[in-house]
Design goal:
By secondary structure, the protein is mainly alpha-helical. The chain contains 10 helices and no strands.
Length: about 220
């Protein structure tokens, strides 16, 4: 049963992007799963209160965790912006990428809303699911190091489906490496500080860097 929770996010990304070919539909499928599974499990299966559910997922404010989230996030954002600025000609073709995003419906009047979703909602739901919900489930069976590795691995898996069409070969496959490393760092932060708040902050800043590249070179 555990493999279902690990693989379904990837299957939903595959269905939304590769089969249906729509970013909005992908968002609906993917984020519905990330939100509903931990919520239903906490509120209806375990019969916890909303406060107990959020607490169990790691939503607790810890100063060291927040500061770690801030400085790691700014480092990620700086590296992403610099990498995109200096290596854009190697990473992607602007015309081809713009056409792909148009086919995926990542264009038009709703683009601003989709960008905000990726910057603000995506980090919260992904961290809640992987570093919160799945971290808790896997901790019952595995050592912390294994839990951090597994959550980072399956978190990175569905990113492979999105970056392969977006970037030029072989950089598209290589782009998954920093995603995996970020997953390891966020998993370590969650394990060390018993909170997902820092990883959410770091994730928000990293995604802001990615959206910065999009706004600078593709919008």
């Amino acid at each position: 049963m555990m493999i279902v929770f690990l693989l379904v996010p990837t299957l939903l990304i595959f269905l939304g992007l590769q089969v249906i070919g729509s970013v909005p539909v992908t968002f609906l499928l993917f984020y519905s799963w990330l939100l509903l599974v931990p919520t239903v499990d906490g509120l209806f299966v375990k019969k916890c209160t909303p406060r107990e559910t959020f607490s169990s997922l790691g939503f607790s404010i810890r100063r060291n965790n927040v500061w770690t989230g801030l400085w790691t996030g700014f480092i990620f954002m700086f590296v992403i912006l610099c990498g995109g600025y200096f290596f854009q000609s190697f990473l992607f073709d602007r015309s081809d990428l713009s056409q792909l995003l148009a086919r995926w419906n990542f264009t038009g009047d709703f683009t601003g809303g989709l960008v905000l979703i990726l910057m603000l909602i995506n980090p919260v739901l992904e961290e809640m699911y992987w570093r919160g919900y799945m971290h808790n489930k896997l901790t019952r069976k595995y050592k912390p190091q294994t839990v951090i590795l597994l959550t980072a691995l399956f978190y990175s898996l569905y990113h492979l489906l999105s970056v392969i069409p977006l970037f030029a070969w072989p950089y598209n496959v290589m782009m998954v490496v920093p995603v995996f490393l970020a997953g390891l760092i966020w998993g370590y932060m969650r394990q060390r500080h018993h909170s997902v708040v820092g990883s959410i902050i770091s994730h928000v800043l990293a995604d802001a860097g990615i959206m910065g590249i999009y706004l600078l070179f593709l919008a």
